[in-house]
Amino acid sequence: MRVLSAAGRALINRIKAGEQVGWVQLVQMDLTAPLRLVTAGRDMQWAGETWHTAGVGVIDPIEDGTGELQGLSFTMPGVDQTQLALVLSEPVEGKPVRVWDALVNPDNGQIEEAVLAWFGTLNVPSIADGPEAVVTVTAEHYGVQAVRPKARRYTNEWQQRLYPGDTSLNFDPATDAAPLAWPKASYFKR
């Protein structure tokens, strides 16, 4: 359960009272230099960082439910040459990505509260070239790692992890096996 700050609770109460309160999504991709994007029409400040509007065009809707863990797709239309160079030069696969849902105070236009809505890892981006380059990056939910089958090794290390002190798999045929002695040819000539 997440506890909201006093400012966040005040905005929730205003929503319950029927007032229109805006919300945006904040996206942070933890690349070499963290990329912070906001779905608003202008740059915004939150948690001491500047979240830039240039970039995220479309984010798949985050659906809360049971069953399959949802992946996301981030489409960034109209990227410039520096952003395109970053996508082409940096290995983004496996890098963390976070999405927050943030409430915007209608009085001053500032983000008052943000709640982590989704966390996962990035996949390889795809680029559609044309008059305006479009970069699409997919990401899989962090929980997928928990349900993915784990490789089991029939080794001493695996056995020690499961049953400390058990030496049943502590065997190396090259050093532990007795040398095999074949009888001399005269043994068979009796």
Describe the structure.
By secondary structure, the chain is of the alpha+beta class. It has helices spanning about 5-15, 80-90, 145, 155-160, 175, and strands spanning about 20-30, 35-40, 45, 50, 60, 70-75, 95-105, 110-120, 125-130, 135-140. The strands form two sheets. Strands 1, 2, 5, 6, 7, 8, 9 and 10 form an eight-stranded antiparallel beta sheet that branches. Strands 3-4 form a two-stranded antiparallel sheet. A hairpin with a 2-residue loop joins strand 3 and strand 4. The longest helix has 11 residues, at about 5-15. The mean pLDDT is about 80.
Shape: elongated
Query: Mean pLDDT, rounded to whole units?
Result: 81
Uncertain spans: none
Q: Helix count?
A: 5
Count of individual beta strands: 10
- The end-to-end distance, rounded to whole angstroms, is 86 Å
